[in-house]
Amino acid sequence: MKRIIVLFYFILFNFTAKAQKDSLVFTNNNIMVGEVKSLDKGVITIETDYSDSDFKIEWDKVSELYSESTYLINLTDGRRLNGTISSVAQPNWEIYRISGDTVRVKRDEIVYFKSYEKDFLSRINASIDADYSFTKANNFYQIGGRANIGYTAPKWWLKASYSILRSNQDEVATVRRQDGDLSYRAFLKKDWYYSTVISFLSNTEQLLNLRTNLKAGLGKYIIRTNVSYLAAEGGISGVNENFENQISSQNSLEAYVGSELNLYDIGDWSLLTRLIVYPSLTESDRWRIDYVLDTKYDLPLDFYIKAGLTLNYDNQAVEGATDLDYVVQTGLGWEFN
């Protein structure tokens, strides 16, 4: 009987409102009709005409979904599909592929989907945050900020990020730090992927005017569920470095191996940690480490509070520089999806 009611709502709203053609049935048998936009990190987003902001609902609270929208869909076994989703074949869900046979899966095998529109903006996600600190006693101030933007296509994504920090204090040298990257990832079968990254780093603690990395490697999602993912990656990195006490820049070749863990079903909290080790192939006994730890707490209206640690280690730092540089940042941000 419940399914008949849902199908009735579904047909009715298809005739009365083009924008509201999807419906969700929750585990408590409540029904919500609107436009289902995405599932990401264990949260499904739906837009309705009667609210000025999207509803975000935990995925495990959804028992049925009926939609005519086309999505980019990721499954736990690594498959990436394009098509529509429906739960009409309970307990299985059906994915009607744009090209190919219908695929039947369990609900929890679907770990990600996003409405696939032809317009450019629907495939973009972005965030920006800033922080500021001031202490009158020693005239200390610190300003910083981070920005991220990404574009998702059916079989690849492109992301860019930038971070800046500057602090000043009486009788202490000014501290400056900048880093950023441009990343391309092409998705392969069985949750493998190919990655290319161009990154740069500049910081006064290590007397580093500029370090530029060009990395190319192969990675795999070892675990990918609605609550977390764990990925491992390795490859080759070409490095160009210029230090304050050197006239010319120097080039080297490194291998790299790393891992990334993302936990995103901790209520409104999420946590990301990434570790990459670079053993040099051209400089004897040299190795470097890059480490990132970010945690975020979601606020209403797509705002968030974020805290993070970024660490860089070089066991063969140039003369006069420290081998370890790290920065801790907290700030308020906003994201666009």
Automatic annotation (TrEMBL):
<feature type="signal peptide">
    <location>
        <begin position="1"/>
        <end position="19"/>
    </location>
</feature>
<keyword id="KW-0732">Signal</keyword>
<dbReference type="InterPro" id="IPR007433">
    <property type="entry name" value="DUF481"/>
</dbReference>
<dbReference type="Pfam" id="PF04338">
    <property type="entry name" value="DUF481"/>
</dbReference>
<protein>
    <submittedName>
        <fullName>Uncharacterized protein DUF481</fullName>
    </submittedName>
</protein>
